[in-house]
Amino acid sequence: MTKLYSYLQLALRSLFRRNRNNTVKIISLGCGLAVGLILITKVLYEQSFDKFYPEADRIYMVYENIRFSNEGADKTIENSGVPGGVCGGMREEITGIESITMSTGLLSDFNIFTQDKKRVKIGVAILADSCFFDVVPRPMIAGDYKSTLGKAWNAIVSKSVADKIGGDVVGQQIEVDEYGFRITIGGVFEDLPKNSGYDYDVIISAETMEKIWGWDPRSNWLGNDRYRVLFKPIKGVDIKDIAAQMPALQEKHIPSAKLKGMGVEFKFSFEKFADHYSSREDVKRMNLLLTFLAIAMIAAAVLNYVLIALSSMVIRSKEMAIYKCYGAKNLNIRMLIFTETSLHLLLSLILAACLILLFQNTVEDLLAAPLSSLFMAKSIVVLFGICVVILVVASYLPSRMFSGIPVISVFRNFAGESKHRWKLVLLFLQFTGAVFLLSLLVIVGKQYSTMINNNPGYDLQNIVYFTLPADSNKETRQAVLDHLASLPEVESVTTSQEALITSDRSGNNVSLPGSSESLFNFRDLYYMDENFLPTFGIKIIDGSNFSKESQKEEMLVSRSFAERLTQLTGWTDGVIGKRITVTEHGDVTISGIYENIRIGSIGEEETRPTAMFYNPNPNRVVSVRLNEINNATMQKVSKTIEEVLPNREIHVLIYEDMMIDTYQPALRFRNSVMIGSIITFIILLIGLIGYLRNEILRRSSEIAVRKINGAEVRDILSLFIRDILYIALPASVVGVIVAYFIAGKWMENFSVKTPLSWWIFAGCIIGTLVVIVSVIIINCLRISRQNPVDTLKQE
Amino acid sequence: MIQIKDLTKIFRTEEVETVALNNISMEVKKGEFIAIMGPSGCGKSTLLNILGLLDNPTSGSYLLDSREMSNLKEKNRTNTRKGNIGFVFQSFNLIEEMSVSENVELPLIYMNIKASERKRRVQDALQRVNISHRANHFPNQLSGGQQQRVAIARAVVANPKLILADEPTGNLDSKNGKDVMDLLTELNNEGSTIVMVTHSQHDAMFAHRIINLFDGQVVVETKL
Description:
Chain A is of the alpha+beta class. In chain A, 50% of the residues lie in helices and 18% in strands. Chain A contains 26 helices and 22 strands. In chain A, strands 3-4-9-6-8-7 form a 6-stranded mixed barrel. Chain A has a 6-stranded mixed barrel with strand order 14-15-20-17-19-18. A 4-stranded antiparallel β-sheet of chain A has the order 13-21-12-22. In chain A, helix 10 packs parallel to helix 15 (377-403). By secondary structure, chain B is α/β, with parallel strands linked by helices. In chain B, strands 6-7-8-3-9-10 form a 6-stranded mixed β-sheet, with helices on both faces.
């Protein structure tokens, strides 16, 4: 203990000693740890989704797997939404299930009116049956979920919603603004944690479905695949035994002959609910990249620490030899260095924590999660483990090297030539990391720019949109359109059932009239008016656009829709004027073909062909093309809506902003890489400067002798530059190769990819080398100009 | 106390072989004060390193208290050094992060002596070299002469049988140099065996015997 205390005391005293570069070591390690550890917590946070439920390992979700017979196995669609009949069917006919529940999304970002007419904004409302909390439990604060969710027009709300409403909410009636229906609150549950992949604030009884929609989907087994079915097997029952019963259930309710006739292959499968979010390809890919980035950051910081520590060997050799001279064993020296490293690591962690707290808002924005959620018990254990590894790595090499300093160094300076190779290896790794991150940053930045500037097939410039209330009638909607159209700032107005930027994935099947065989599934954009295509600048390539004379059974299809149809039917005279059968719409005539448009952001875009249908009556989503978007025009649009719909809260959104919003994950990743690159570059420069300082010290007499023998400033500088470039050049090549593969992996997320030209990598290598050479020149200029006699005198 | 016979030390690099000590034989009795002199490169420091168990000879015999030291491994050399040999260096070699008393305490820590005993011995040693009033200062707060006195206190604190001094006055002015030599003489009078390497004829005169080296060999031995 005494020894440990004395080591600690020595470490504390040596903190601010000259030539030890401890401040630099701690700052660079602290910065690297701040970013690296926060990225690790983000990855752990992403992997913790939906694992907070009790017995989360026992909760399974039902998936349906659909494939058209005329398409390859790779076209199988896995859908976490299933028809409404599945839950009831499994409950009644499958053995081994302890509890099962169905639920579906109903509303998001909507308003309610409380009994005292207070307007409250609510996030998400779902419909669920009374067994919901049997499977995915949340603690109840008030009321009873079972009885509440068993009655129509009843709901339970989260604590935060209850707090917003205020008072004792149980028994209160609330009115849903857009739909106008009333529900009674029967209970309050604890808020879901942030790492919930299935988010909801209000659960309305599934018994209400029939009242809202006019039909009860719980007996339907085909189509309307929007219900999430979750279940828990009885303890000890193998999930495979339950899965084995599913084909019989499917055959009973969806006969295979019927499916075959439709040209569809269909089956159910199960997956652990806790894996639903973390097994998503985009989540897995992003986690992999963030882990890689975090490791690169931490490694750069730790290697830099080791590099600076080893660089001080020449200066500290005598100190180590004195210890040895007076009886210190290798273990004592190792313990001394270990204690120093521990203290430095502790201070770096404190610095990292301060930086994280100082930039809390930026960090939370970057990671799209609050700090309090990121630091869970599991994260803290993992972070502690990482810190232990860092401590071992950061102290092992220096302690080994320092303990190897011969005791004889007490009489003469220790040159440490053989240890010089270690420093070069570390420098190589640092250069590799810096070039890797710089190249990654350039590629990610270019990809982001490509995405936001990519032509989706329509022009969103100067277009704003809003959604009219569900309870607004035809006349009110028309009045809104007419008022807007009359404004001089408005170039055109159009209505549609959906906005072009939507997360909806609704689709329908195409077949030929009289045939039950489905040809393919397409993304249904549903209804719009004749102004839709001109307003968005979507080009008609064949046939004609909708007109006021168009009928409801007319449809426009995309180029890929027409091509697919031609391919499958063998029609040689095109598709214009042809009659086809579409589920949900019946027999319709194709009146025009428009150029392919992108639905959703790059990376999450719809891959199916698209089609639109005509509706002469105004729909809920209104899009307005203005001659310019500014505060005045936005206010004018809002005021015009308010004139027709007073006291209704309607948000006018800018299409382009919403589109950019869909690229938030890519933007966050770009910013993470940017911060990582900047910090790694700073760390690299600190390491390089530390290395150079010690090299200058180590080689000062050599430089003086060279100068005496005729070397000029240029010769001395080139001596250092050449030595470093021997390391930097191959390291840069390795860095860009790693960046090429990692960036390629990240870009698998996107269908439109920025080209990875050779000049990007060449530019990154040249840029890094220019910075390195500049740092060398700045740091070595003084010694190369110094009078050699002075240097030798100091020796 | 020390018996050296046919001691040779050869430094080898890839291309060059340098004979630092060439078949040296000598003896140092308990309580003796020996000065080793000679020009630079004659092998004085090499001899001192071997005597101080900081290095092994290439061949020959080195008996310290009748125990053979020439083939000891690093670990055994360290253990033997502890408490048996004290060092005084030309450049003092105090540890900058340690206070005066901590520097003096250093050899005792590695001998696993109890804290209370260490404290007592450190006080004694500091009083012996007349620097106890500076016990809590750090080396950079002391003059060169004071630093060397601290180094001597550190060398004697473990009551070693042998004190090796490598040009102990080399970095000091004449007054401080004299003080240090007086101190070494006093220690010798109290029973310590001292082997001192020096370039200074004046300092060498404090010894009982002067051994002159040249090209790794003993050329003259003078009793005073």
